[in-house]
Amino acid sequence: MTTIVETAPGAAAEPAESPKPVSTRWVRPSYWVLLAGTAVLYLWGLGSSGWANSYYAAAAQAGTQSWKAWLFGSLDAGNAITVDKPPAAMWAMGLSGRLFGFNEFTMLLPQALMGVGAVALLYATVRRTSGPAAALIAGVALALTPVAASMFRYNNPDALLVLLLVLAAYFMVRAVGPVSARASAGWVALAGCALGFAFLTKMLQAFLIVPGLALMFLVAAPAVSVWKRLGTLLIGAATMIASSGWYIALVALWPADSRPYIAGSTDNSLLQLAFGYNGLQRILGQEGPGPGHGPGPGGPGHGPGGGANLMFGGDPGIGRMFGLSMGTEASWLLPAALIGLLAALWLTRRTARTAGLRAGLLMWGGWMLVTAVVFSFMDGIIHPYYTVALAPAVAALVGISVAELWRVRERLASRLVLAVMLAGTGVWAFVLLNRTPDWLPALRWIVLIGSVLTAVVLVMVAHRPGKLTAVVALAAMVFGLGATAAYTVETVVAGHSGGPIATSGPKRDNGFGGPGGPGGPDGPPPGFGRADDPALAELIAGADGRWAAASVGSMMVSDLELKTGESLMAIGGFTGSDNSPTLAQFQQYVADGQVRYFLDRQEGGRGGPPGPPREEHGSAAQITDWVKATFTKTMVGDVPVYNLSAPHN
């Protein structure tokens, strides 16, 4: 295998061992093959397995029916309540539906294209500091990360989040290049803008990469004083605040009675949502028992949690990223990335402060370590697919370190580190593949034996020029990426069966006592809220009013919205625990004829988040009690339905 390492303009000269320049005719074709392969992988069969997460799908559909619903990320076109995330991801899916017609494919198309864009941006970012070989390895590693294939074919906000985070990294790498102080400030401002919109995608999670970006700039920015570098970072912070603050101000200034309630907040505030339910409470676990303590999404009683539950992260601790829940999502190359980071930092210990290679290592290393530590020890709600935020950093560090160690492979120490990275990857792949023993049982042995043998040969012959070295390099790539590639392909071809929580790879126990697989549960468990009764759908489709029906919680509401195209009110938001609407507000809606039916999820055993039935509380309980006392019940299938235009005599 022949590699070259480009020296970024203005960077320190590379060590004397650098090989003579070789042909770069392979660079452009390899780049386009990478993007074409990624596009095929992420677009293949896209949308063929349904609506993915119906919660976000219903919000995207509402955005195609009402511009106000699109602006606020409302769950319904009647604008009763938003989803419990900011709306940036819904903006993309809603616009796609408006342009091309709303269906499963057009909803997921922006997600897949974001995946291709993230790979392209990662390639461009790594190439600026470490050359095309490192960039190509990084791009392939990201594209073949199972959780990336899952999220870039799913409708959760994480696809847009990852794209914007990699974009911010690209801008920061440009800021430490050979530019003037004024141009550097401009690139930092653009990075802040990207982070601001990432905040409007998934709130405080966007800021986990800020320490890595700031560290790189402080260490490797152009030759100006530390105070000027700090001042430039303040410019980036200002644009970050401005690019997210405009929307926060819009929500705060918009009259509350003419916009949807901000789901997940306690005071109808986007800031409270950011720092509460989607912020510190996720880290500290204050919103209810965390994943290591019991129930799942949204607090107590929402489904089983605990160590091995695939829907949650397992017990907090240093081993969570490698555990049964998260290990197969993004940790295939994590050991190699950690070893490579340490080795590459040692190799660059004597380079100049502004050396591009070391700058890249500081940025990606800071990104990976801070994100991994927070994910490992947060005690609130966390799901396996969150690890997609680690994937770009892991891929970049693998690409950079492998290319740099290969460049100086004449040194025995470099070959030994490469061998340890390869053999360690093979051993860890064996462990991960052994967690699904019935799926391709021979693969784990092929990868293990092949990687170990190739590692031994690499130490012996990789420093010698000739075809054998190229064969060894190719074998190392095949065995190093073989397991994660197979898991990723399985994620794509197996498809998604829907559900609020996506997992990658072959089918396995979903944590609720049944089989699961890519995209979540393999069919809804009892009480999951699937609106599969044709009579119920027909009733809703024929209703009039601002809302065709209302029900506590979002699951049955979301499915019925997607099935009928009608607007339904999710009382209390996703879990039914938000205090919206109040009993007085709901009574006024009924008096004005704005809501036609009430569907009783509690009595019907449907409509709430997965897990055993739970007692409703707050305004949801008050509304349910008032409806039952005031209106007559009719069974439609197995769902109790109350006609809100026909009270008791």
UniProtKB/TrEMBL annotation:
Residues 1-23, 500-533, 601-620 are annotated as: Disordered. It is found in: Cell membrane. Residues 84-242 form the Glycosyltransferase RgtA/B/C/D-like domain. Keywords: Cell membrane, Glycosyltransferase, Membrane, Transferase, Transmembrane, Transmembrane helix. GO terms for molecular function: glycosyltransferase activity. It is a multi-pass membrane protein. Residues 1-16 have a biased composition (Low complexity). Signal peptide: none annotated. Residues 544-629 form the Putative mannosyltransferase YkcA/B-like C-terminal domain. Residues 511-520 have a biased composition (Gly residues). Pfam families: PMT_2 (PF13231), YkcB_C (PF24878). The chain crosses the membrane at residues 30-47, 108-126, 133-153, 159-176, 183-200, 206-226, 233-254, 330-347, 359-378, 384-405, 412-431, 443-461, 468-487. The keyword Hydrolase does not apply. This is ArnT family glycosyltransferase. It comes from Mycolicibacterium nivoides.
